[in-house]
Amino acid sequence: FYSGHWNCVYGGDWRAERQSLSDSETISPCEKLSLTLPRIISTMSAAFHVCLLLWCLQTNAVPAALAPPENLALITLNTNYILSWDWDSTLAEGHAVDFTTQYVAKFKLRSKRKNPVWETACEKTSHRSCDLTKLNLFYLGIYVLRVQASVNGSVSDWTMKEFCPDKDAAVGPPSRVDLSPAGNGLDVIISDPLTSTNSSMKDNIQELYYQILYWERSVDTQALETQTLDSKATMVTLSDLKAWTWYCVSIQSRYDFFNKSSSFSSPHCMQTEGPIPWWQIVGYFLLSLVICFLFVAVILCSSIWFFKTVKAIFYPSNQLPTHFQYLCDSSGSDIPRLLTPDSDSELLCDKVTVCQEPPVLEIHIPPPEALPVPPSDSSGRHSRQGSGGSGDSGVYSTGCNSGLRQPDSIQLSSGDEDSGQGFLDLEHVKMKDMAPELKTRLLIADDGVVDICV
């Protein structure tokens, strides 16, 4: 003010005027004060500007606050809850970013007595989501959720969202659908949707019911005619359906209070039943007969084969050679056994054939001169000497009754060679009379031995 006033009075530079006054005359104290005051004011103004500049520089050096997470959203199904959010990763400038999620019941925020205690659901996680299923939130309660971001020691503001499971959580379709034929209809068995603890959702939603959609299966999908049926029961019978026809069923869960509806379950198809045609009954009967016949035939063939196998093992068809057949016991058994020195008497078997060749009857005839002249009777016939006469008859007989060869004494008496030959002829005829069925061969050797094979 003073400098301006000085300039306005003198209309020029006050410094030049001061120099001229100092050169011309002596300056008074008031004049000296008026000359130094503008200098003091200019110095103070410069200092103020310097302080203002330093404050601005310090303000610009402090980093800006972090942006909070945005677009908080909940992905829910029955009692499974996942909170997700968005955040611009470029704001981290290459640093790691962490997120913290907390929750509190809404009624605690309204309390004025004390500050609410926030529970931490996910602490310093790098994922942009947090699973709230493990918290087991009360289904009919109301909660407040908040998320905060932190980068290199700096934190953002909290972003909050209100959550009510009964209102905001989605309901799922039935956990399982089964079909079973019931005559011309179908029985539909529905399993309730399950919570995260595998309990029924009807424990949380009492008014839950099902919308059943069913249709006749056809190749032409455009000509499908669907029908609907609402029911709160878990077992429903679809009646008035066509016999021996395929039907498909799909079911949806619904909750009308908050207008909730789930997606439809995957279609389940099954064929209905009805009266059995006569030709099917006949076919089943014939098929059962064929199966029974084959079963009985297999059993019989197996039994016969088993019987023949056992018989071939224990009773073989091949017999022992004849020269081993004397190895039998006294009771007539044909089972071979070892012989002992004390069992010689057991060799005398009535039915055992010892000789391999046919039995031969040998007759030894002495020379004519050695034969005594038999006495003749009145009829002119010669009498035959009995077995008790003297001399060796030379006749031996072989047989199998005793198992040993025994001689049979036969004595022939003849006065000459012709009488001896006639006697042999007579004995030959008697042998034929005694056994006409036997084939007799009489052989006379040079040494007087006659062989007869029977």
From TrEMBL:
Question: Which GO cellular component does the record give, naming just one?
Answer: plasma membrane
Q: Where is this region: Disordered?
A: 366-400
Per the database record, which ranges form the Fibronectin type-III domain?
Answer: 173-275
Keywords of the record, alphabetical order, are: Membrane, Transmembrane, Transmembrane helix
Q: Where are the bilayer-spanning segments?
A: 278-307
Which Gene Ontology MF annotations are present?
A: interferon receptor activity
Q: Which InterPro entries match?
A: FN3_dom (IPR003961), FN3_sf (IPR036116), Ig-like_fold (IPR013783), Interferon/interleukin_rcp_dom (IPR015373), Type-II_Cytokine-TF_Rcpt (IPR050650)
- UniProt xrefs under SUPFAM superfamilies: Fibronectin type III
Q: PROSITE patterns from the xrefs? A: FN3
Q: Where is the composition biased (Pro residues)?
A: 366-375
Pfam annotation, one family: Tissue_fac
Q: The organism sits in which domain of life?
A: Eukaryota
Q: What is this protein called?
A: Fibronectin type-III domain-containing protein
